[in-house]
Design brief:
With 86 residues, the protein is mostly helical. It has a domain at 40-86. Helices cover 86% and strands 0% of the residues. The protein contains three helices and no strands. Helix 1 packs antiparallel against helix 2 (44-63) and helix 2 (44-63) runs antiparallel to helix 3 (69-85). The longest helix is centred in the first third of the chain and has 37 residues, at 5-41. The mean pLDDT is 96.
Length: 86
């Protein structure tokens, strides 16, 4: 446990931020799984509807620093390729 008051505050802040980041990352993974499930079943209408939402979630995570921008671009490219293959 830290002895300095500012260090104690940093511990609390980092715990809070970790929980927020974990929630965003979990929601992102869920959204990607929904899209991939629609692609897997071959449901083009559902996949087309879910694609913009999924890309938006990826962009949001990248803007918050949870994903690196290149990792986000890579994920979006892979999803677009799967959608185009339907």
């Amino acid at each position: 446990m830290p002895n300095i008051k500012s260090a104690e505050k940093r511990v609390l802040v980092s715990k809070k931020k970790t929980l927020e980041n974990k929630a965003v990352k979990s929601a992102l993974k869920t959204q990607i799984k929904k899209f991939l499930a629609a692609v897997q079943t071959g449901n083009k209408d559902a996949a087309t509807a879910l694609y913009p939402e999924t890309v938006s979630a990826i962009d949001s995570a990248a803007s918050k620093g949870i994903l690196h921008k290149n990792n986000a671009a890579n994920k979006k490219a892979k999803l677009a390729k799967k959608l185009a293959a339907l």
